Amino acid sequence: MASTVSAPTTHGELSELPTMAFGTCKVGFGKCEFLRNASPTDVDEGEVEAAILGAVAAGYRFFDCAQFYMNEAAVGRALQKSGLPRSQYFLGSKVWPDNIYGGAEPVVAQLRRSIQDLQCGYLDVYLVHWPVPGESGKKPGKHVAAYKALEDFTRGVAGERGNGNEVLIQRLGVSNYRVADFEELTRSGLRVFPYCNQFEVSPDLCRERTIAYFHAKNVKIQAFRSLGSGRLVAGVAAEAQDRGAERQKRLQSGEQGSKNQNATERAGGESELSSGAGDGREEEGRVFSAVCDVLEELNRGGQSPRTAEDNAKSAAESNADRRITASQVLLRWALQRGFTVMPKSLSRVRQEENIAASDERCGWRLSDAQMARLNGLTTTTALARFQGQYEHCIVANTALEGSMKGKIAFTDIDLARTV
């Protein structure tokens, strides 16, 4: 078996969570684009088992789960089948707005259900998935009561003052919280300060003032969609293909030193990779170009980056001979920024490709200049997507669903691309 990533040895004193988790969102749902269109009966048990067993064999020891993913029971069965003792892996989960809106009782019931489904006894980290507001803007929001209910089952609080509760949560945190949400929560008087905030971070969506705020508060940032749901990797692949074709064209025509095709034109021709128009496509083109530039530097000689499949075909080669991939560059950027990452893949080849970029395994680092090149690339399209998702999800599956569109006062600290 491959070497593991930060396997815990004890839960007496809390071990650090690995900085790379295996994401389980959509695992078991094939190519389903939106989980809201699926149901728990749609879960493909075989797909879940293959993905989890592959991830375990690749060395993952931290699994990011959630009520909303609708596959926790299948994940739990797969982990049992893996043979790993509970003390040798970490599990995280999240409670969805329907239960948050319902109050303390359904929140605690969902906590117990996730533990039962995952067959894990306790959770290493448990998060309030979205900061559900109060009805008619009433303060504090319903997420505050949910968090406080979970404190009673968290390490350091459970059992105090004779409440008799067992420790079901090792670390308690939040997810998708803006600074205003976090301050509303912490002003309410907490017994357990949030361990982390999990939200989307990638080179094209890096909300720098929000990140700086949580770093200053010593709240760990767990970054999901670090690969842009595959969109960034696909965009870089298209960019690399265009560059390779241009180089080949120059060689065939004998031209020397001609410039690559404008990045705007390249991105504009890939309508499937960009949901924006005009400036949005130009901004995305700059992201793809920057990542491709870094890849070419790392892989020496300006050759087009290889895919995971290319690397798999070269299994006989030494690690030093294998080329770095776009996914690995994106993950290294996030890890070197101090974020936890949670890439998901159903492919064993890509699982191994991703974990090879982890702090424990990676034999290379992005330089300061390369990191700088990948910073400051946040796009207008990505910021608009963030705002829309936030407005939808904070009231998803509640009596307030659809009521928050256009009503959130996003501030500079929510959207700023620079500190």
Overall pLDDT = 87
Give a count of the beta strands, DSSP E runs of length 2 or more: 8
| Alpha-beta content class | alpha/beta
Described by the principal axes of the CA atoms, the overall outline is globular
Order of helices and strands: EHEHEHHEHEHEHEHHHHHEHHHH
| Residues in helix, % | 40-55%
Concise overview:
Helices cover 41% and strands 7% of the residues.
What are the SSEs and their pairings?
Layout: E1 22-23, H1 45-58, E2 62-64, H2 72-82, E3 90-95, H3 97-102, H4 104-118, E4 125-128, H5 142-151, E5 172-175, H6 179-187, E6 196-200, H7 208-216, E7 220-224, H8 231-253, H9 263-268, H10 279-298, H11 308-313, H12 326-336, E8 340-341, H13 348-355, H14 368-374, H15 380-393, H16 412-415
Parallel strand pairs: 1-2, 2-3, 3-4, 4-5, 5-6, 6-7, 7-8
Please, could you describe this protein's structure?
This protein is of the alpha/beta class and 419 residues long. The chain has helices spanning 45-58, 72-82, 97-102, 104-118, 142-151, 179-187, 208-216, 231-253, 263-268, 279-298, 308-313, 326-336, 348-355, 368-374, 380-393, 412-415, and strands spanning 22-23, 62-64, 90-95, 125-128, 172-175, 196-200, 220-224, 340-341. Helix content is 41%, strand content 7%. An eight-stranded parallel beta sheet has the order 1-2-3-4-5-6-7-8. α5 (142-151) links the parallel β4 and β5. α1 (45-58) runs parallel beside α13 (348-355) and α4 packs across α5. Residues 7-12, 258-278 and 314-321 have low confidence and may be disordered.
